[in-house]
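assembly run, all chains below
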Amino acid sequence: DTGVSQNPRHKITKRGQNVTFRCDPISEHNRLYWYRQTLGQGPEFLTYFQNEAQLEKSRLLSDRFSAERPKGSFSTLEIQRTEQGDSAMYLCASSPGVANTEAFFGQGTRLTVV
Amino acid sequence: GESVGLHLPTLSVQEGDNSIINCAYSNSASDYFIWYKQESGKGPQFIIDIRSNMDKRQGQRVTVLLNKTVKHLSLQIAATQPGDSAVYFCAENTGGRAGNQFYFGTGTSLTVIP
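ok done. output:
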């Protein structure tokens, strides 16, 4: 088990373009989270999956953002019509389906919108 | 949303000294807490956790103290080493809810002086 894997590690895109990030959680972890982190701040919750079901979405997740986890394994986060304010580190985490257990984070995808 | 804040944004300690990082939380319903360590360019890394039915938990060189009366959490690092230099976040969770999301504070940057 190599932990939570995120691809790509870095992405530079022009404003207005669409981008998609992928997260492969730790196998057999049925909970998957997406967070966004800007410089000097803690991670902010975006959305959460239990298996393939998206159970919770933050108000931070505008309609330009969409996340999927079609088979309950890997997940994708798409941002449409990117804006400069979307520049951030996007972190994925996974945890077992048991309450009060830690979430394991990936290395993140650094998005820069120019 | 919940507010998780840290008292000190930066902390510098001499190698070999003990470090104490503090955190205040506001949601009295939070019942699970984690300290994460984040090095530059990497995702948060689990250090230690504590459940609300405990007031102290010890790990290897680290101790977490929880004071539910004043909603305060602290992380003590014994014999601090240069490799401990990083940003430390506390995160709270109301694990019984379906969302099970973690709320993070701003973070404290720890610098260990050799």
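The longest strand of chain A covers residues 88-95.

The radius of gyration of chain A is 13 Å.

not gonna interpret more than that til we talk
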